[in-house]
């Protein structure tokens, strides 16, 4: 972590301190995701698909492809790779047998390590909030999530390089 992003524990905490801590958390999460991806020998699209399943289970292959920014063929390729390793399974939709949905497979990598630690700390934070405070936090998180998910104008500068090659 950069030295200037450290906010000492205890004492008064400013809004700027909170902002820096959230930035630090996001960076730490990204680094943990890179280590997790390497550990599972996954490429970017495969890990993103697994992460989407954590919040969208079950999901149709088309919706998954939409969120991954992939064509139907690209989505099928990702699902084939994940299904061959037992990370996901495809099955008929409960309400419409003509539709296929994707869900966790027998070897699905459940939330562990840093992901579990993040959930534990968020749980501790939420336990300290009263009902209206939790409702306000939920609304702010929902708004931030929707804004991040919304299509936006391209950012200036070169696009970040993304690879679909497994990390070794």
Structure description:
This protein has 168 residues and is mainly alpha-helical. Helix content is 56%, strand content 6%. A two-stranded antiparallel ribbon has the order 1-2. A hairpin with a 7-residue loop joins strand 1 and strand 2. Helix 2 packs across helix 3 and helix 3 packs across helix 4. The radius of gyration is 19 Å and the shape is elongated.
List the helices and strands and how they pair.
Blueprint: H1 15-40, H2 44-56, H3 61-68, H4 72-84, E1 88-92, E2 100-104, H5 113-127, H6 131-149
Antiparallel strand pairs: 1-2
Mean pLDDT, nearest integer? 82
3D shape? elongated
Overall radius of gyration: 19 Å
Order of helices and strands: HHHHEEHH
Oligomer: single chain
Unreliable stretches, pLDDT < 50, 5 or more residues? none
Distance between the termini: 24 Å
The portion of residues forming beta strands comes to 5-15%
Could you describe the largest sheet, including whether it forms a barrel?
Answer: 2 strands, antiparallel
Work out the helix count.
6
Tell me roughly what share of residues is in helical segments.
55-70%
Number of DSSP E strands: 2
Structural class: mainly alpha
Cross-sheet strand order for the largest sheet = 1-2
């Amino acid at each position: 972590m950069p030295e200037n992003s450290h906010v000492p524990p205890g004492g008064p905490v400013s809004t700027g301190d909170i902002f820096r801590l959230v930035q630090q958390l996001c960076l730490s999460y990204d680094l943990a995701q890179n280590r997790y991806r390497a550990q599972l020998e996954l490429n970017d699209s495969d890990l993103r698909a697994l992460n989407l399943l954590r919040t969208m289970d079950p999901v149709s292959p088309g919706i998954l492809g939409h969120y991954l920014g992939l064509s139907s063929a690209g989505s099928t390729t990702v699902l084939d790779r994940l299904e061959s390793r037992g990370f996901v399974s495809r099955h008929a939709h409960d309400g419409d047998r003509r539709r296929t949905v994707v869900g966790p497979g027998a070897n699905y990598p459940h939330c562990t390590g840093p992901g579990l630690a993040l959930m534990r700390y968020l749980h501790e934070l939420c336990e300290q909030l009263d009902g209206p405070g939790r409702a306000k936090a939920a609304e702010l998180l929902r708004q931030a999530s929707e804004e991040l998910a919304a299509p936006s104008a391209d950012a200036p500068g070169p696009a970040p390089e993304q690879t679909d090659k497994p990390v070794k």
